[in-house]
Amino acid sequence: MKILIIQQRYGIGDMVIFLPYIHAISKKLNGPVSLLAKESSKANDIFGEDKHINEVIILDKEKDGLFGFFKLSGELKKRKFDKVFIFNSSLRYNLVAKFAGIKSIHQYPLFRSKDNIVHSAKIFTENIIGQIVSTEPSLKIQGTKNDYDKNFKHICLGISASGPTKRWDIDNYVKLCRELIKRRNCKFYIAAGKNDIDLINKLKGSDVGNNFESFEKLSIKETLPIIKNCDFYIGSDTGFAHLSVALGIKALTLFMDSPVMAYGRYSSRMVTVEPEGENDSTKHETLGKDKVSFNKVLSEAIKLLN
């Protein structure tokens, strides 16, 4: 039986959140699945060693619009899928599946405009497989022997974000690292890319700069074993925070302008800090990056340090 799963959201964090449900469907149907996903989700990197996924089909711009509709349905038709599980309410994907000749189509209710990413996926999957599914993601990778110096705490530092409203000021990270180093020997791994070079250089150029290494030249796949061997993560609500919990480490995640109830409550390994005055209420348009308490972040980081 050939199975297709469609998860079209853009983010790495989104893809991590769907991990338990993709795995659950694969296990229930006793075989690996194909996944239709955006390039920006980095599904190829995330699932490169995952036995539950045998193929990632990239949903690129050529598959947009009317011509893209027929291109996509044609590509899927060639693969002769028997079942499809569509993790959205879009009529477009429903019709694509029908045009591709897929007989068994499972999908969220059509035309639903709002949902909680975790709750919707969990309910949808549980209704299909008839079993309770944990929301905890688990990402298995090879080659993660931990030979890091045990005299140091190894900390993944998520200084970047998808936009400036979700990014804590870089000076706060310098100050935070300085305070942590006073308490323990620490080595920091800067989870940021080439577009964040100015932020990376500010950290490396600080008085604690000798304690940093950066991900700027690494692919997502190359960062996974490094994150896995870290003691914990501190930083923004980004893909790296979600990869951290999926790899089994704690993530102290700062929610400033994204929905904490959707992205911050699905894993027991995620510890969250919200802007002052918010309590499980941070969402898009909160714009709270300047209201995140440094002392609160430091206090939570020290708990993880100890």
Itemize the secondary structure elements and their pairings.
Layout: E1 3-6, H1 12-28, E2 33-37, H2 43-46, E3 53-58, H3 65-79, E4 83-86, H4 91-99, E5 104-107, H5 117-129, E6 153-158, H6 170-183, E7 186-190, H7 197-204, E8 212-214, H8 220-228, E9 232-236, H9 239-246, E10 250-254, H10 260-263, E11 270-273, H11 294-305
Helix pairs in contact: 1-5, 1-9, 3-4, 6-11
Describe this structure in words.
- By secondary structure, this protein is of the alpha/beta class.
- It folds into two domains: 3-129, Glycogen Phosphorylase B (Rossmann fold, 3-Layer(aba) Sandwich); 153-305, 3-Layer(aba) Sandwich (Rossmann fold).
- It has eleven helices and eleven strands.
- The chain has helices spanning 12-28, 43-46, 65-79, 91-99, 117-129, 170-183, 197-204, 220-228, 239-246, 260-263, 294-305; strands spanning 3-6, 33-37, 53-58, 83-86, 104-107, 153-158, 186-190, 212-214, 232-236, 250-254, 270-273.
- Strands 8-7-6-9-10-11 form a six-stranded parallel β-sheet, sandwiched between helices. A five-stranded parallel β-sheet has the order 3-2-1-4-5, with helices on both faces.
- Helix 1 packs parallel to helix 9 (239-246) and helix 6 packs parallel to helix 11.
- The longest helix is centred in the N-terminal third of the chain and has 17 residues, at 12-28.
